[in-house]
Amino acid sequence: MLLCPHCGHENRAGTIYCERCGVALVPIPLSTRKFEGDDAVGSTDQLGTDGVLILQIENDETPIVVQMRREVILGRVTETEDAERTYINLLPYGADEAGVSRRHARLLRDGQAVYLLDLNSTNGTHINGEPLPPGVEKRLRDGDELTLGRLKLYIYFKP
Ligand SMILES: [Zn+2]
Q: How far is the CA of 79 from the centre of ligand 1 (A)?
């Protein structure tokens, strides 16, 4: 049995992506990804057809890999009965100390586009250092830097 740290669902052994919320339960090899250096120019804003998003939290070696359905909530929710949305629990990454709200921000997948929305969080959201006003949806690109409160993470689109 594999207990999902994000939604609390008990998955069968051998499951790769949580059957309930889509978060990868085992480390996913990312060697196929081509890093093109620090230059973000020319990076894609198109999510791959399998909808896999990689969240690399600063100072943490293991990225969170999630197969996006429609909505992903970033915050501090550990268990939910809400089957419509995926909740990413950032508590193991110091979300409390960094001032991340329970429901801080939402990622929305629309085809191959991904949008970020701040959910009226207490300490705000930044994209590449720019404040994201609450209620404004901003399209994300591969390699964008997101700051939730003081928690910094990078977002990558798996081709
Ligand atoms: Zn899950």
A: 9
The answer to whether residue 40 sits within a structural domain is: no
How far, in Å, CA of 50 to CA of 67, rounded?
7
Cα–ligand 1 centroid distance for 97 (angstroms): 24
> What is the Å distance from ligand 1's center to 110 Cα?
21
| Cα 96 to Cα 34: distance, rounded to the nearest angstrom | 33
Whose tokens are 């197969």? That residue is 67
Distance 98 CA to ligand 1 centre (A): 23
pLDDT tens digits for range 17-71: 999 889 999 887 664 444 545 444 567 899 988 899 999 999 888 899 999 988 9
Overall number of domains in the chain = 1
Residue 22 CA to ligand 1 centre (angstroms): 6
Range of the domain at 107: 2-27+45-157
- Distance CA(86)–CA(104), nearest Å, equals 13
Looking at residue 67, which CATH number applies to its domain?
A: 2.60.200.20
Distance (Å) from CA 19 to ligand 1 centroid: 7
